[in-house]
Write a structure and sequence with these properties.
Layout (H helix, E strand, L loop, with lengths): L6 H7 L9 E13 L11 E9 L9 E2 L2 E3 L7 H13 L5 E8 L10 E10 L12 E12 L2 E7 L4 E12 L4 E6 L8 H16 L15 H12 L5 H8 L3 E8 L7 E6 L4
Parallel strand pairs: 1-6
Antiparallel strand pairs: 1-2, 1-4, 2-3, 2-7, 5-6, 7-8, 8-9, 9-10, 11-12
């Protein structure tokens, strides 16, 4: 074996062809909680969770829906930079909350070649979008999210198409409460149904101990609007006293009021972190 005098000399002779090549992608679960169309004048808007999907226009999985994603340029960008570029391309959004989720690396997740995906979760209020999303992208409302007997059922609807997803959850480690997800329906391209479930569960968990919810809020909001967002993410109703205890140190009251919607004026608040 040749002995090298320096790392530079070693790297000059190094033969990287002895290793198999793989590709890396960034896939983004973009989640929004925003208003639904009000049915009656004197009722507040409800809130609903939505996921941005993109319809593929080429094989593999031609005409199937998937999350925004793409291949990382290994010589020019990191995985997070790749995710930021993809979000800008699909939504015209930048400087939004984005965090790494999980790495998905099953052997046959992409039929073309070995592809490992680093997934991200991003949060916005889609009502704040100024520029239109791409023509092959669509917001799907989460009209059902329930878990029974360790099977999660997720129904997504964009007004013209309904997608039903079923995923089995298997406990991997009792000591850490870690689960393995197994798709039963393969509704979306690749393994993006698993990414969506992981993204929603991550945001639910973080809602309990962080201020992540405020990434989905406008600058000014009523406490009722904020409570609706919490309830949509957590998937349950919150009693008013309990909710007030949760947010009492997170918001500050402004001198502005929300009026003109057929009900009593409501005080507007803002996130204390921006105060």
């Amino acid at each position: 074996m040749k002995e090298y005098k320096s790392e530079e000399e070693f790297l000059k002779d190094y033969d990287s062809s002895q290793f198999e090549k793989l590709s890396m992608t960034s896939d983004i679960c973009l989640i929004s909680v925003s208003d639904v169309e009000k049915k009656e004048y004197r009722r507040n808007n409800g809130k609903i969770m939505s996921i941005l999907l993109v319809k593929r226009d080429d094989y593999p999985y031609k005409d199937r829906w998937c999350l925004p994603g793409g291949f990382m340029n290994p010589k020019e960008e990191t995985l997070e930079e790749c995710a930021t570029r993809i979000l800008k391309r699909e939504t015209n959004l930048s400087n939004i909350y984005l965090e790494q989720l999980y790495t998905f690396d099953s052997l046959k997740r992409d039929p073309r070649l070995r592809v490992v995906s680093c997934s991200f979760v991003a949060l916005i209020d889609k009502n704040l979008l100024v520029d239109p999303i791409n023509k092959n992208a669509s917001w799907f409302d989460v009209t059902l999210f329930e878990e029974k007997n360790n099977v999660v059922t997720l129904v997504l609807d964009n007004g013209t198409e309904t997608l039903k997803i079923e995923i089995e959850k298997h406990l991997k480690e009792k000591t850490t409460d870690r689960y393995a997800f197994i798709s039963k329906t393969n509704t979306l391209a690749f393994d993006h149904d698993l990414v969506i479930l992981s993204g929603i569960e991550r945001i639910r968990n973080k809602t309990n101990y962080t201020d992540v919810v405020f990434n989905m809020m406008p600058e000014l909001f009523t406490l009722g609007e904020l409570q609706q967002v919490y309830e949509v993410i957590l998937g349950k109703k919150l009693l008013d006293p309990a909710f007030r205890r949760i947010i009492k140190d997170k918001v500050v009251k402004t001198d502005k009021m929300k009026t003109g919607e057929g009900h009593r004026p409501s005080a507007l608040f803002k996130y204390k972190g921006n105060h």
